[in-house]
Design the sequence.
């Protein structure tokens, strides 16, 4: 038997540190449990574009023992209550919809979608079934200063500075969780006859051995790609964007309001993200270079940001949409960009890291002899998750009526995954529900599909099943309840900037 | 005229403070912050619990007077029906302001306070401009509050550090069958307290904070006396 007593994480970005932290916290590294070593190259900069999280991050931070106040103060973090998609449907100035983080009123006990179709009273789906859109439109925070840490009045995630986040995680891993931090370059990979990695050779610290190796080396995919040669599955046939121009935009003054949601604005050949941190905004244009050129993309970004862009430094990041055919090969598992990358349309990068770190931690193979079983399970789970995320991202493009070549090409049948085509056919007559998403590996709930479908003007024809709509009274109550919650939320929640300031000054209590 | 001013024996020679009015100002308050030094007197009649300051989220110890926002069940027929009244009531209309340098505190008065009169009540100064016994008493109260607030803040900080604070789940049914859920109150987590390691208990003991901690726990029984008071009003 070969017990797994030592895990080696190669790479020190957010992926590496989150994985190291979860394993160390879950396996008592500090008090003599599984040893965790993280090797970070002093010469390779991190990519650091994952600046939007899911609500799952609250649980991740709690599990590794970081206080919310400390996280918000040290990572320039702000609250995020979902995404506002502007100009995605027809490109008009009034064209927008929300994908909030709060589930529809009464979900999943009652599915309000068919009742909303029957009588929307002129209201958008998200505003009729969820109070969060109103909260975002009014620039309000998802909680009060009296709300305990990690609890919310409305569900929320974060926008954060990825560089500062990695620094906080590093300090926490080393000082609190007993992770050994080695600053060195990996120069070679040493393997056993069965292909397993036995150790990685470093420039100054010799060979570092272990039973499990986590590849967090980013795009270079040092272990999973270069060493094992696991092929990369290119998905640019479905998702066309292949470049991002990113820029950090300071606020005009320290009192400037901070948006409490990601703003995603469709453009001729892609879309622009706009996220609010405490001290600056993060803005970026993701585009398809087959449909525009870098010069034109830069002027699109300039038009969005305004004249102050001239004084700021714009970074171009290539995007290769896709993922490894396998994420876990032998005794090596890829987490983060080494496993794959997609445009940040639904902030899937960090959540995939969290999900991977969670599964590795909770199902850490006790010994090498059972590792292949868990590896297979891991590969099935993540292949499923990547496919669902790709489907969901594609859905945003499919329903657009925009007329530019990028958008028209996005609607060609050849670019749509079969499963998604099938689902869409079904959804023309049955609204998305839990029966569409039966796996315990699901990433997006049926509610997310509803928000995007109906936000983009998709119609479900419920005529032939009208007799199944026996909860009209309850539905009406739920719509009214939503209106009451909106009024209550608007009356009690503080402005986002005001809450951020109070977190700096007073912090949240733990209870 | 300035409303909040430093007390001055020349300018304020004629001022009097109406004690009945001082108490009446708390007639519609359902809670007030209290300090450690008062706990033993408070626990005879009031529940001593914790609540969060709405503006800062910080905890403070309070004495509870009622369940609704403006309900003071100790205010009965125009008088305060209790053996002891918290310092935050009786020190009115005086407060401590910052003096010339940061360390100095000066006694100030809210001249527009309804308890301040020229006709009846306690004088602050005698005909020679010397402080009256009443004013000396007020000064003692203010000093006790100043020191007590800092001490109580440290006490609450220790409770938090030891994770001894927990939210209270209060569901009350009154004689008229009306049910009320009282939110936003916190108390000592008895289970955590029982399981506290010896060194933490020794530390609390050395700081003399074990007594106030148990006083808070014991005072919780007065929630029932409050319910009884309310029921008597409803009958």
Sequence:
């Amino acid at each position: 038997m070969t017990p797994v007593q030592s895990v080696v994480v190669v790479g020190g970005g957010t992926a590496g540190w989150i994985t190291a932290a979860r394993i160390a916290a879950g396996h008592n590294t500090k008090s003599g449990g599984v040893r965790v070593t993280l090797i970070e190259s002093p010469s390779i900069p991190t990519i650091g574009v994952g600046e939007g999280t899911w609500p799952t991050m609250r649980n991740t931070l709690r599990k590794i023992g970081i206080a919310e106040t400390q996280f918000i103060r040290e990572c320039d973090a702000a609250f995020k209550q979902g995404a506002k998609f502007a100009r995605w449907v027809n490109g008009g100035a009034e064209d927008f919809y929300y994908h909030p983080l709060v589930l529809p009123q009464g979900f999943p006990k009652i599915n309000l979608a068919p009742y909303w179709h029957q009588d929307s009273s002129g209201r958008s789906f998200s505003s009729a079934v969820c109070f969060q859109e109103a909260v975002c439109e009014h620039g309000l925070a998802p909680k009060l200063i009296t709300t305990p840490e990690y609890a919310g009045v409305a569900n929320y995630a974060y926008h954060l500075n990825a560089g500062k986040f990695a620094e906080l995680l590093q300090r926490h891993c080393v000082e609190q969780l007993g992770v050994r931090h080695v600053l060195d370059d990996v120069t070679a990979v040493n393997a056993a006859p069965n292909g397993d990695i036995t150790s990685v050779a470093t420039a100054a610290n010799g060979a570092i051995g272990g039973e499990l190796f986590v590849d967090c080396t980013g795009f270079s995919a040092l272990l999973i790609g270069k060493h094992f040669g696991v092929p990369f599955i290119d998905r640019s046939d479905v998702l066309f964007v292949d470049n991002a121009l990113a820029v950090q935009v300071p606020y005009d003054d320290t009192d400037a309001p901070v948006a409490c949601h990601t703003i995603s604005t469709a453009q001729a050949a892609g879309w622009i993200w706009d996220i609010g941190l405490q001290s600056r905004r993060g803005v970026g244009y993701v585009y398809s270079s087959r449909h525009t050129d870098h010069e034109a993309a830069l002027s699109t970004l300039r038009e969005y940001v305004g004249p102050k862009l001239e004084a700021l430094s714009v970074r171009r990041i290539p995007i290769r949409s896709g993922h490894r055919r396998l994420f876990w090969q032998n005794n090596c598992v890829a987490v983060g960009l080494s496993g794959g990358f997609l445009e940040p349309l639904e902030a899937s990068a960090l959540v995939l890291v969290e999900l991977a770190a969670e599964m590795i931690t909770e199902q850490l193979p006790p010994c090498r002899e059972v590792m292949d079983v868990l590896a297979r399970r891991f590969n099935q789970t993540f292949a499923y998750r990547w496919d669902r995320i790709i489907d969901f991202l594609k859905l945003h493009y499919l329903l657009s009526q925009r007329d530019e070549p990028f958008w028209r090409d996005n609607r060609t049948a050849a670019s749509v995954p079969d499963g998604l085509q099938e689902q869409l056919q079904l959804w023309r007559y049955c609204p998305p529900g839990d029966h569409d998403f039966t796996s315990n590996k699901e990433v997006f709930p049926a509610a997310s599909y509803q928000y995007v479908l109906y936000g983009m003007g998709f119609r479900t024809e419920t005529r032939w099943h009208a007799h199944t709509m026996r909860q009209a009274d309850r539905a009406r109550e739920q719509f009214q309840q939503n209106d009451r919650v909106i009024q209550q939320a608007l009356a009690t929640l503080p402005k986002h900037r005001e809450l951020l300031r109070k977190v700096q000054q007073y912090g949240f209590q733990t209870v | 005229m300035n409303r909040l001013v430093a007390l001055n024996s020349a300018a304020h020679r004629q001022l009097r403070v109406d004690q009945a009015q001082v108490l009446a100002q708390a007639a519609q308050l359902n809670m007030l912050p209290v300090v450690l030094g008062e706990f033993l007197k408070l626990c005879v009649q009031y529940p001593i619990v914790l609540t969060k300051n709405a503006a800062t989220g910080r905890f403070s110890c309070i004495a509870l007077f009622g369940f609704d926002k403006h309900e003071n069940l100790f205010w009965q027929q125009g008088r305060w029906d209790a053996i002891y009244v918290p310092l935050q009531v009786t020190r009115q209309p005086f407060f401590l302001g910052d003096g010339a340098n940061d360390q100095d505190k000066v006694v100030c008065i809210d001249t527009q306070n309804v308890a301040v009169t020229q006709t009846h009540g306690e004088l602050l100064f005698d005909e020679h401009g010397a402080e009256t016994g009443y004013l000396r008493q007020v000064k003692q109260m203010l000093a006790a509050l100043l020191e007590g607030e800092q001490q109580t803040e440290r006490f609450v900080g220790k409770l938090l550090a030891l994770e001894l604070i927990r939210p209270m789940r209060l569901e009350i049914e009154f004689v008229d069958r009306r049910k009320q859920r009282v939110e936003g109150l916190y108390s000592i987590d008895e289970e955590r307290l029982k399981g506290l390691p010896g060194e933490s208990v020794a530390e609390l003991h050395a700081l003399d904070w074990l007594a106030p901690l148990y006083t808070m726990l014991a005072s919780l029984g007065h929630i029932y006396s409050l319910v009884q008071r309310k029921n008597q009003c409803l009958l």
About this structure: The mean pLDDT of chain A is 96.
